[in-house]
Amino acid sequence: VAGFGGAAFPTHVKLSPPKEKKIDVVIINGAECEPYITADHRLMLEEGEKILKGARIVAGLLGVERIILAIENNKKDALDYLRSLSNGSIDVVSLKTKYPQGDERHLIKAVLNREVPRGGLPFDVGVVVHNIGTAKAIYDAVYQGIPLVERVVTVTGDVHVPKNLLARIGTPFSHLIEECGGFKGEAKKIISGGPMMGIAQYKDVPVVKGTSCVLVLNEQRVKIAEEKACIRCGKCIEACPMGLMPTVLAALVRKKSFDTALEYSIMSCDDCGCCAYVCPSNIPLVQLLRYGKVCSRSLGKESR
């Protein structure tokens, strides 16, 4: 079983915190990672009881009594339904709908007002976070003996009939798109994930454990803007939820000054894309920061 939040982090690692880390809260993440994605919302409405049982399994393995199920307030039906199922044994809390709240560091801050230190993990503040889909997969493995062979995928954008599909791991994107009536217009991009953090893919790429969404965009929605020089407006700094300086980091990456970029905490970037979204000069900030992190890892450098 792996995390369903996009990073596909191995679940057994989260269930095996270091002995010196005292875990007192389990948070089940019901905040969708990005706009367009509704897979978790659908899963909460259809498999709520299994999700709660999966959450209790996680708490039992960690020896934790407090379980919090965090759901954004634009999913009132899911909030009401899961509150009725939990009977007060699990705290089902409503969160303000905002991006990128699906990131576990921001979620912990919103729910518990605890801050994960830079370079740290939720373990450091006594928390383990699991996605809605992961909780369901844990239930399937323990109660039903079913391995992780399928997951819910949102297929949306410029397709004729957008849907949430229960897809087998390994199913090509093209099969899912066909199930949704095919392309609406000429597809310009097929994105694995959402519009902010997703990655453009070919239509025959398969569904993997971390595939939450297949987003189709036609030529009317995709505009390639010309990159211009940075005007030092500071909008990317204001937008960064991690308190970084994306324009400075991007310049360091272009100079291949990875040591200095590490000093400026490049590894704390969560790839949310807010910086690139607000940039009036159309600088591909998030792509540069992703590249910088990959290069830093390949050089064996560590976050500071």
From TrEMBL:
Keyword Phosphoprotein assigned: no
Pfam families documented for this protein: Complex1_51K (PF01512), Fer4_7 (PF12838), SLBB (PF10531)
Keywords: 4Fe-4S, Iron, Iron-sulfur, Metal-binding
Record GO terms (molecular function): 4 iron, 4 sulfur cluster binding; electron transfer activity; metal ion binding
4Fe-4S ferredoxin-type domain sequence ranges: 220-250, 260-289
InterPro entries associated with the record: 4Fe4S_Fe-S-bd, 4Fe4S_Fe_S_CS, Ion_transpt_RnfC/RsxC, Nuo51_FMN-bd, Nuo51_FMN-bd_sf, Soluble_ligand-bd
PROSITE patterns for the chain: 4FE4S_FER_1, 4FE4S_FER_2
Source organism superkingdom: Bacteria
Gene3D superfamilies the UniProt entry points to: 3.10.20.600, 3.30.70.20, NADH-ubiquinone oxidoreductase 51kDa subunit
GO terms for cellular component: membrane
SUPFAM superfamilies: alpha-helical ferredoxin, Nqo1 FMN-binding domain-like
Record protein name field: Na+-translocating ferredoxin:NAD+ oxidoreductase subunit C
